[in-house]
Automatic annotation (TrEMBL):
<keyword id="KW-0028">Amino-acid biosynthesis</keyword>
<dbReference type="Pfam" id="PF02826">
    <property type="entry name" value="2-Hacid_dh_C"/>
</dbReference>
<keyword id="KW-0560">Oxidoreductase</keyword>
<dbReference type="InterPro" id="IPR002912">
    <property type="entry name" value="ACT_dom"/>
</dbReference>
<dbReference type="Pfam" id="PF01842">
    <property type="entry name" value="ACT"/>
</dbReference>
<dbReference type="InterPro" id="IPR045626">
    <property type="entry name" value="PGDH_ASB_dom"/>
</dbReference>
<dbReference type="Pfam" id="PF00389">
    <property type="entry name" value="2-Hacid_dh"/>
</dbReference>
<feature type="domain" description="ACT">
    <location>
        <begin position="456"/>
        <end position="528"/>
    </location>
</feature>
<dbReference type="GO" id="GO:0004617">
    <property type="term" value="F:phosphoglycerate dehydrogenase activity"/>
</dbReference>
<dbReference type="InterPro" id="IPR029752">
    <property type="entry name" value="D-isomer_DH_CS1"/>
</dbReference>
<comment type="similarity">
    <text>Belongs to the D-isomer specific 2-hydroxyacid dehydrogenase family.</text>
</comment>
<dbReference type="InterPro" id="IPR006236">
    <property type="entry name" value="PGDH"/>
</dbReference>
<dbReference type="Pfam" id="PF19304">
    <property type="entry name" value="PGDH_inter"/>
</dbReference>
<keyword id="KW-0520">NAD</keyword>
<dbReference type="InterPro" id="IPR006140">
    <property type="entry name" value="D-isomer_DH_NAD-bd"/>
</dbReference>
<comment type="pathway">
    <text>Amino-acid biosynthesis; L-serine biosynthesis; L-serine from 3-phospho-D-glycerate: step 1/3.</text>
</comment>
<dbReference type="GO" id="GO:0006564">
    <property type="term" value="P:L-serine biosynthetic process"/>
</dbReference>
């Protein structure tokens, strides 16, 4: 029975989708130890920001195939460990963009008009119109740090509100910024010039405590800081000090270095000019339905063997590419499986040569598929599109990628894999026909024309009379049925290869007999 564990509150629309293909267990509030103890029973885990998916949790997930993050940030998932363990991580990159952007806007407006403070005072019986005089956003300078999906939406709305928008994002081109009517600036300049600063960048080792005492010290004393991105990007003690000392005009935070916010956090001791919300950026009914459906659909698809559309840890392998290149990826994997079963000893290098039209396809997915095929013989089910590159690297296998657009061997081009190792190497080529059929077209440079089949036998032998008959008889005597046979040679009575598609695998004892046939130099049983 396929089982999915849901360990954070998820919209029912997502649960309903998962229930189409799996038993769904909802257990919110698990400790790391609880999760470690349970995860071994599950094929998939669905989370939000509340669950810490540590390396230990992932390693305890013996049958875990996918972690679905119903939201954007995956900083609560140990993605490198997931990749190493072959566990796919997916998220919903766009499902809560508007919700998070609107939360930042709500906090900016709340800061400028003291909404929470004025509300609390009025509820307590007060009527203080003087104390809560605010400022307008109109004609003020907004500094956006991180001009991605959420930052861009904030920039767009604030432009429309008459603000001047500047931004710091080292990964955005000046052209793109200009299209959004945003002027790019250095981080220091932005902090010096802006009246409002809003953070929309991920938390990474590079951005941790990015907003520190020094940067806060550059802000105007009237300027306000909003963080709806991630805790840990702002040094919270430095912020508390800056607010208390009047170094900056105010701050509003939705996210914290530690969540839930610690009772003894220095932020709790700030009396004025600070607004705190409990990580509500994505908490709209619309966003929660969007992210739940988006991620549940991906979990369902992956459990059914289909590709995911927003994989975090398969670079370059979008669902669209997977679909378009399906037969090509299948060919790469098949050739990888084949060549690895011809090659003995320690593999040191894999060359992936994309010839003719093949060279126009994105090469990275084809290389990953070839590696998956090559490593399957050694690692079985443990190897997949997620961890193939990493496993190859860990084993010191060098991967060479060669594009040869001039090759004209087949209309759709061809793909050649060559292995090199301490015991020499082998090479196989294949093509995809217009109807999607796969063909093996060379084996160690010998031309053949073979459809891959589940069980095959490949020999390298001397091209001489009688050898094909002898091999046929030996197989017949052992009740191995031959479905098809092909011989490839380059010169008469030189070396040749024979490729047999057979209905059953070759037992080891039979292989010894085959090797004993006069003229047979190598015999490799192959399972694809
Ligand atoms: N409070 C909440 O509930 C929510 C928070 N978020 C968080 O908001 C953040 C932004 O999300 P999206 O806009 O969807 O992501 P995104 O990936 O579209 O944009 C992030 C931007 O940050 C930029 N960036 C990366 N490193 C940077 C650096 N050192 N300095 C400046 N810019 C840098 C990137 O180039 C990118 O343009 C993420 O951290 C996400 O986890 C997202 C949704 C809800
Ligand atoms: O999507 C994100 O990155 C968020 O921060 C939203 O977090 P949540 O799903 O509300 O716990």
């Amino acid at each position: 029975m396929t089982k999915v564990l849901v360990s954070d509150p998820i919209d029912q629309a997502g649960i309903d989708i998962l229930a189409q293909v799996a038993q769904v267990d909802q257990r919110v509030g698990l400790s790391e130890d609880d999760l470690k103890a349970m995860i071994g029973d599950y094929d998939a885990l669905m989370i939000r920001s509340g669950t810490q998916v540590t390396a230990d949790v992932i390693k305890a997930g013996g049958r875990l195939r996918i972690i679905g993050r119903a939201g954007v940030g995956v900083d609560n998932v140990d993605v490198p460990t997931a990749t190493q363990q072959g566990v796919l991580v997916v998220n919903s990159p766009e499902g809560n963009t508007i919700a998070a952007a609107e939360q930042a806007l709500a906090l900016m407006l709340s800061l400028s008009r003291h909404v929470p403070q004025a509300h609390a005072s009025t509820m307590a019986g007060g009527w203080d119109r003087k104390k809560y005089v605010g400022n307008e956003l109109y004609k003020k300078v907004l500094g956006v740090v991180g001009l991605g999906k959420i930052g861009s939406h904030v920039a767009r709305v604030c432009n429309a509100m008459g603000m001047e928008v500047i931004a710091y994002d080292p990964f955005i081109s000046a052209d793109r910024a200009q299209q959004m009517q945003v002027r790019l600036s250095s981080l220091e300049n932005l902090f010096e010039q802006a009246d409002y600063i809003t953070l929309h960048l991920p938390r990474t080792p590079d951005t941790e405590n990015l907003v520190n005492e020094e940067l806060l010290g550059k802000m105007k004393s009237t300027a306000r800081l909003v963080n709806c991105a991630r805790g840990g990007i702002i040094d919270e003690s430095a912020l508390a000090d800056a607010l208390k000392a009047g170094v900056i005009g105010g701050a509003a935070l939705d996210v914290y270095a530690q969540e839930p916010l610690a009772t003894d956090s220095p932020l709790r001791s700030v009396q004025e000019r600070l607004i705190l919300t409990p990580h509500l950026g994505a908490s709209t009914t619309e966003a929660q339905e969007n992210v739940a459906v988006d991620v549940a659909e991906q979990i369902r698809d992956v459990l059914l063997g289909l590709p995911a559309r927003s994989a975090v840890n398969i670079p370059g392998l979008s669902a669209e590419i997977m679909e378009r290149l399906k037969p090509h990826l299948q060919l790469a994997e098949t050739l990888g499986l084949l060549v690895s079963q011809l090659s003995g000893g320690q593999l040191q290098e894999l060359e992936v040569r994309l010839q003719g039209e093949f060279a126009q396809h994105p090469s990275q997915p084809l290389v990953i598929a070839a590696l998956k095929g090559v490593l399957t013989s050694a690692l079985g089910d443990r190897i997949n599109y997620v961890n193939a590159s990493l496993e190859a690297k860990g084993r010191g296998i060098r991967v060479l990628e060669v594009k040869d657009e001039t090759s004209k061997d087949f209309a759709g081009g061809s793909l050649q894999l060559t292995t090199r190792g301490d015991q020499g190497g082998h090479s196989v080529t294949g093509a995809v026909f217009a109807n999607g059929d796969l063909r093996i077209t060379t084996i160690d440079e010998f031309p053949v024309n073979v459809s891959p089949s589940r069980h095959m036998l490949l020999t390298r032998h001397r091209d001489m009379p009688g050898i094909i008959g002898q091999l046929g008889s030996v197989l017949g005597e052992h009740n191995v049925n031959i479905a098809s046979m092909q011989v490839g040679r380059r010169i008469v009575r030189g070396d040749a290869v024979m490729v047999l598609s057979i209905d059953d695998p070759i037992p080891p004892s039979l292989l010894v007999t085959i090797h004993a046939i006069n003229g047979i130099k190598e015999a490799h049983p192959v399972t694809l």
